[in-house]
Amino acid sequence: MDKIVLNGSDLTLDQLVAVTRCGATVELSDDAKERIKASRRIVDKFVEEERVVYGVTTGFGKFAEVMIPEDETKELQKNLIMSHSCGVGNPLPEDIARGIMVLRANNLAKGFSGIRLETTETILKMLNAGITPIIPEKGSLGASGDLAPLSHMVQPMLGLGECYYKGEVRKSVDAMKEAGIETIDLTSKEGLALINGTQVMTSVGALTLYDGMNISKVSDIAAAMTMEALGGIIDAYDQRIADVRKHNGLAATSKNVRTLLEGSKNTTRQGEVRVQDAYSLRCVPQVHAGCKDAINYVKQKVDIEMNSVTDNPIIFPDDEMSISAGNFHGEPMALPFDFLGIALSELANISERRLEKMVNPALSHGLPAFLCVKGGVNSGFMIVQYSAASLVSENKVLAHPASVDSIPSSANQEDHVSMGTIAARKARDIAFNTRKVLAMEILAACQAIDLNKSSDKLAKATKAVYDEVRKVVTFNEKDRIMSVDIEAVDKLIVDGNIIKAAESAVGTLEV
C-alpha cells in the first residue's frame, strides 16, 4: 500500500482509515519538514531572548504567570505529560489511538507548533512500526484540547507507560527499543505542542463518521429488504417526490431504494393492495434524508478539523510571533458530533419500527406472528424486537447533547469547555447500537421473505443481499439462540459484505 504523505492540508477521511485500519504507512512532505524547522527556530529564539511566551517560558493554565528558567525547561515539559496523564476507563481501540497519532502529526506538519522535527518524526516511526499507545477513553473536557488522553499518547515517546506492540501489551520502553526507535526528551513548548488540541475527539468522531456513512447505506438496504418482505408501495420513492422538496438526502435515499428494488416482483403500487404504507416504509426517503444531510454536514466539519491547527500558543514564523488564543476549544466539533449521534439514532429508530411491522401480526400484512413457523412452542423473532427496542431506547439517552454542558477548570481560568470528546464517544456508542438494530431488521426481512416464499421475486440487489445473509444464517424453522444469528449478520455489515453485495448488483449507493 502506498504511503500517506502528511502536509497538514489535505488529509482525507479515506486516508485516515487507510492508516488506522488498513496498515498504510505515513511520512512527512518535504515542505512540512521545512515548516516545522522554521517554527522551531522561532521557539528557540524566544527561549534565548527570555521572552514571556505562554507554555514556552511560563507554566500552564492558572500557572501561566509563573516564569520558568531555561535550565528547567525539559523538566517542565516531562512533568506536563506525567501530571496530565489522568485518563481513566477502558483503552480506546487501536484504530482510534492510531488516528489520534495521525491527526496530531498532521497538525504539527502545518508548522505552527514550534516542535522539533525529530519529535514529530518519532510519532510517524511509531505508527509505521505498529507501536500504539494505550489511551484511556475518559478524562477530556474537550477544551485546552484533549489534554489527558493526548498525554497518554505521548508517554511511549518518552519511554513511559504501556503500549500495544505485535498484538501484545508491552512496556513502552521495551517496545520502542525492540522497534529500534529512540525515546526522546521533550524540550521547550514540545509537551504543550503534543497535547493541546482536538485530535482525540476528532479521531473518535471521524472514524465514527466513516462507519456512519456506511450505516447510512445499510439503512437504505435494510429498508429495501423490508419493502420486499411486506409488499411495500414503491410510489413513495418516486423521483418526482424528491424533485419538489430539494433536500439532497431525499433525492439520494429515493434513488438508492428505487435502484435496490428495480425489477422486484414483491413491491406494489399504490391502490393495488393498499393505498398507503405506514410511515416507517412510506417516509423512509424523508427520515433517511435528514440523517444523510446531517452526516454530510459532519463530514464537512471533520474534513476541516483534520487539517487545522489546534495548538496554543500558535507560532507564526514569518512574523516571529506567538499568539495565545483558543483554537484548542472543541466547540466547532462538539456540536457536529452531537448531531452525528442524533442522526444515527434516528436511523435505528425507524429501523426498529420496520422490524416491528414484520413481527407484529396486526401490522405485517399476513405474516405469521413473530415470523414463527409454529408459534406458541416457538417464540421466533419476538425477543429480537425487544432487543432492538432496548438499543433504540439506549440511543435516546445517549443522544442527549454533551455540548450543552460545561464545567470550569484550572481555577476558573478555563471557564467554558466543550465536552466534545464525550459527544464523539457517545456517537460511537450510538453507531454500534444502530448497526445491531439494522442487522436485526435485515435478519427478520430474510425470514419474512422465506415465509412468503418470495425469494425468487426479489430484485437483483436485494437477492444479492439475501443470498449473502443465507450464507451465514439459515431459515429459522424452530427456536435457536438468536444472538448467534444477529452477530453473524452484524459481521456482514462490519466487514462491508452487505454493501458489497448490493453494490455489486447496482453500482455505488449514495450517502
UniProtKB/TrEMBL annotation:
It comes from the Bacteria. InterPro entries: Aromatic_Lyase, Fumarase/histidase_N, HutH, L-Aspartase-like, Phe/His_NH3-lyase_AS. There is a cross-link at A143-G145 (5-imidazolinone (Ala-Gly)). The keyword Lipid biosynthesis does not apply. One of its GO terms (cellular component) is cytoplasm. It catalyses: L-histidine = trans-urocanate + NH4(+). GO terms for biological process: L-histidine catabolic process to glutamate and formamide; L-histidine catabolic process to glutamate and formate. This is Histidine ammonia-lyase. It comes from Ezakiella coagulans. The lineage of its organism: Bacteria, Bacillati, Bacillota, Tissierellia, Ezakiella.
